[in-house]
Amino acid sequence: MKRFSWDELMNRYPALFAILLLVVALIINFILQPNMFARDTLNSNMRVFLPMILLAAGQAIVILGGGIDISVGGIVSIVNTILATQVGLNGSPEKMWTYVFVSLGAGILAGAINGFFIAFLRLQPIITTYATSFLYVGFALFILPNPGGGIPAAIANVYRNTTPLGLPLAFYVIAVVLLIWMYVRSTRFGNYLYAVGGNAEAAYETAVPVTWVLFSTYVVSGFMAALAGIAITMLSGSGNAEIGVPMTLTSITAVVIGGTALSGGVGGVAGPVVGAITLGIIQNIISFSRIDTWWETFVKATIIVVALAAPGIINLLRRKKV
Amino acid sequence: MSVSLSARNIVKRYGGVVALSDGNLDVKSGEVVALIGANGSGKSTMSKVINGVVVLDGGQLLLDDKPVRFSSPQAARKMGIATVFQELSLVAKMTVADNIWLTREPLKPNGMIDRKVMREQTEALLDLFSGTFKADLRPETIVSDLHPDEKQIVEILKAISLNPRILILDEATASLDSRQVERLFELVRRWKEEGKAIVFVSHRMEEIFRIADRYSVLRNGKTVGQGDIKEITEKDLIQLMTEKEKVFQFTKAIASEETSGLDQQVYLEVENLTTETLRGISLKVKQGELLGIGGLQGQGQRDLLLALFGDIPYHGTVRIKGEVVRFKHPRQAMDKKLALVPGDRAREGLLYIRSILENFLLPSWRKYGFPLKMKLAKRDAMAISERLSLVMSGLMAPVSSLSGGNAQKVVIGKWLLRDPDCYLLDDPTKGVDVNTKAEFYALLTDLSRQGKSILFYSSDDDELIGLCDRVIVLHDGKIRAELKGASLTKENLIAASMGVSNGGEA
């Protein structure tokens, strides 16, 4: 009896579009790079993708709650510059641990600042985080005006080369992120998140603590951005205050193609994670096909437009048919 | 669990607008108090004060004779006050069960929501209304897939799932069909016996007299009368609400043979119209005829009007004055002099935050050329608003500043400016106060006297019987009965609505 409905499918399986896209991208990548599933290649790919995966997961939480966080790139930059200047190329593992925790604290603090303005003072998310993004990148530049510094190669290699049971470290991190999400999704907080993102006024009238839910999404996003900053620092081994800047829009793209609606309340975290992987593979494809790098922006832009337009196009086709 | 609540001299301002200047209400265990008033009289504000959605600016709330102050809906809820909201408080993209139990989800020991228990509890609640809704209303249905009446039921269940001591029903019956209202009233009586106190906010007089024990009438933010419902007549009640004595009397458009002769041309002819919900509708509407469309909610009435207006695709033939038309876009229907007053005026009928002037002129900008002849446009808009006796602060005020009835006048007014030949009306008097209703009836009669054809869907059976000569009753996408003359009675209308087949000359 039930008719096929794109809306319904997307509602039930928000990651559908991202998975389709991932399959296509994987096939193209496989043709260009037949050894991509070899252990080393897989590991080198996944460790590159991981920072964006973490960032997209955090972004997804904010967007689910009906907001947006444009400052995540700035938080990545702050974390990167903290680690690069404070640990240094000759730092000890103990020092690294200390500043990993400092970084996470910084991420939570930055997220809390966003959350305070947006949830408690009711400022617009897009404007607020746009403003704080400059604040955070500026702070990163204050810590490290010129690219330099870094963390010891031995520590970076732990991130780069650990492959427990033959699988890249990134797999385990992704698994943990998704498991935590699946748990959170089925708790009361998970329901609150969808309710606030779907209809904040109704949620308020139903006695959902809207302010705290909103606030927490930005704190989670700040925390995830800090994790992403730690990951990208261990990947590159060096410091650069501008490192996070281009990551913001990519994280939003990952969320959108992951089927999580920008309007909030629809989607999940798994889709955006798949979306981030897909975007990474597309970047691979572009670098392997030896075309100009500006194509990367073009392709990403095309994908985001198609992802946003797909439900509309399908509805239009259906309308014609009746 | 005896309980009592009194609101004394409540004051509430929104910016410069005084919504309530002296609101009073008393309700106690085992009684139903009807909170009555025209649109914009402060009824909704009053219920929002009681349930803590808005914070009052003055006056006193006494719960069990102790002063209370609710800073949030949570606070009121903790004290056992639950509300069925007029603007639904449901999250569209969540399931029925998620919506009902939001913030009170049954949890497993590990902190996860126990979906199985939640579903069972939801099913138990749905059983209260079993048999009055379609099978697609289930605990796991996404709310946005439901019909308005089903959403309303979910909203009612959500409130009652709190097991409140005081239940506020704010226009809870507006979207329900007669069978569902019947069931709700049975439940209300049961809740009353259980000792709940119930505040019933409604426009429907007949319902108020059926269910309420006492009344409290608001007019312009002031309580102007309170008392026992047995000691007041409908007429007196309406008089209290409206100041001026104005009880509407239905005047049939085509009063007698004098105008309803055979000479009248068929304006609109529909043959075998089929859409996703309609299953072969055929009908004819004469010039100057006011054809009523009845039936339970969601039987295809909306689709019928939308299809005729070119808003949704259809199969079948539509003829206007004998000429076959096939509208693919409302613009084409407008060019053939059709007009649609949609069911959801805030979303479909109006640009809510834009000015009254803009809304009036929206379908007719072309008429005013380029560059716009603003003076002429304003004069025309002013003339229409005077004709409709629109209550507004000025043409530049946003439509959102108007009360429900006045906003609906703007929807009709924007078409009057184009002078259409045919009006398609989707429940135009829903949520409209008595006074404005009477004005609408006069307007409809007037239009049909001028030879305009009108298709008039209404969820209010009395309206259909009072205004129309002929009523078609839709049931499950088909015309179940056509009632006219002597067969046009409330009994037949309801019987046909429910799908009972002996409802008339089908």
From TrEMBL, chain A:
It holds the Pfam family BPD_transp_2. The chain crosses the membrane at residues 12-32, 53-76, 96-120, 127-145, 165-184, 212-237, 243-262, 269-286, 298-317. CDD domains: TM_PBP1_transp_AraH_like. GO terms for molecular function: transmembrane transporter activity. It is a multi-pass membrane protein. Keywords: Cell inner membrane, Cell membrane, Membrane, Transmembrane, Transmembrane helix, Transport. Its main location: membrane. It is found in: Cell membrane. The keyword Cell inner membrane applies. GO terms for cellular component: plasma membrane. It comes from the Bacteria. PANTHER family: ABC TRANSPORTER PERMEASE PROTEIN YPHD-RELATED, ABC TRANSPORTER PERMEASE PROTEIN YPHD-RELATED-RELATED. This is ABC transporter permease.
TrEMBL record, chain B:
CDD domains: ABC_Carb_Monos_I, ABC_Carb_Monos_II. InterPro entries: AAA+_ATPase (IPR003593), ABC_carbohydrate_import_ATPase (IPR050107), ABC_transporter-like_ATP-bd (IPR003439), ABC_transporter-like_CS (IPR017871), P-loop_NTPase (IPR027417). It comes from the Bacteria. Keywords: ATP-binding, Nucleotide-binding, Repeat, Transport. GO terms for molecular function: ATP binding; ATP hydrolysis activity. Residues 5-245, 262-501 form the ABC transporter domain. SUPFAM superfamilies: P-loop containing nucleoside triphosphate hydrolases (SSF52540). PROSITE patterns: ABC_TRANSPORTER_1, ABC_TRANSPORTER_2. Gene3D superfamilies: P-loop containing nucleotide triphosphate hydrolases (3.40.50.300). This is ABC transporter.
